[in-house]
Amino acid sequence: MSEHGGNIIGIAQQYGLSANELIDFSANINPLGASERVKVLIKNSLADIEKYPDAEYRHLHQAIAEAHQCDYNSVIAGNGATELIYAVTRYLNPKRALLLIPGFAEYRRALRQIGTEIINYPLTEEAGFQPDLRLLNTLSTIQPDCVFIATPNNPTGLMPDNPFMQSLVEHCERQGIALIVDESFIDFLPENRGLIPQVAVSKHLYVLRSMTKFFAIPGLRLGYLISGNIAGIAEMKNRREPWSMNAFAARVGEILFDEHDYIAATHQWLTSQQHYLWTQLLTFPELTVWPPSANFLFFRCHKPNVDLWHALLKYRLLIRHCKNYVGLDERYYRIAVRSEWENQRLIAAMQQVFAYG
Asked: Which residues form a coiled coil (predicted)?
């Protein structure tokens, strides 16, 4: 099974299904789809396939810098946030790294590729799967070269509180620990600006963003990294392969920050449908559900002998099994928030699985 959601073609082939039959709750992509302005831009830019993209991606980097009111030289865009996870890992070349578990698989893969010693820091159910100030004590004891943390976390969807994150940033800055904060889902939290405003006064903070999930462009692949370590950003740009982003992704990225109507519509959809799924899942006594902050929900099924992944696949619903996350087992699942009728279909299927009604 894939380490990520969205493997709809592979699952369909494995189980003899048509990919078009399946509703994909395993990938956390905005169900509104790409905006009309994005689609029109691509149609009007078809001639760009005949030309090389700007190898420096100047207009894209400028758009990102202006959107976040940061230094142009502190920004590097990439072929999804994933490319930049590998880029910053290769640049830092840490001997020892700390990973919060459960967490996104690509941090571990990137570190393993360069032979880094990985220390796991478990986020436990007893602590609500949230880090607290005990993490700072662990960092002082272990003294890793870098730490990865996702805010909100994937797969739990939980957001650490702002005072904790501020303490973590300050601790890592004092200790000279590279802190890589993955904010791939933070656009779904309209009231949270994240840590990008702090990069100007931090030399060890690296903030990752993804445009794939919120703007529903997973086929284009687009993300960016912002850091106050200007020399480090320049080094990452110099080291990577040329033209890592295609022309369409670069052009689209230049306009996404101005998609105010789309952004507002997304937040309106999420407020409604996140609440619906959350409250409906809470009605199942067989589940323990954690409060969502982003566009997906995390839960544990404690009814014996129920494999929800296979059970829901019979209803042509694909959810994310979390058993291949380090620190979790077969009882844990993640589901994306989708459109109203799709969410209703999921809840109806779960009622059948648990034999309600």
From this structure: none
The rounded distance, in Å, linking the Cα atoms of 278 and 261 is 25
Mean pLDDT within 142-170: 97
Start-to-end Cα distance in the chain: 33
20: helix, coil or strand? Answer: helix
211: tokens are 């445009």
Written as one letter, the residue type at 1 is M
> For 53-74, what is each residue's pLDDT tens digit?
999 999 999 999 999 999 999 9
Strands 23-24, 317-318: pairing is parallel
Strand partners, 334: 298, 320
Tokens read off for 54: 């700007």
User: What number of helices (H) and strands (E) belong to the chain?
Assistant: 12, 13
- pTM metric for this prediction: 0.95
Which strands sit side by side in the sheet containing 223-227, from one edge to the other? Answer: 75-78, 223-227, 205-210, 178-182, 146-150, 96-101, 117-122
Report the 10 Å Cβ neighbour count for 46: 10
pLDDT greater than 60 at residue 232: yes
Peptide bond into 152 cis (omega under 30): yes
> Using an 8 Å Cβ cutoff, are 144 and 120 in contact?
no
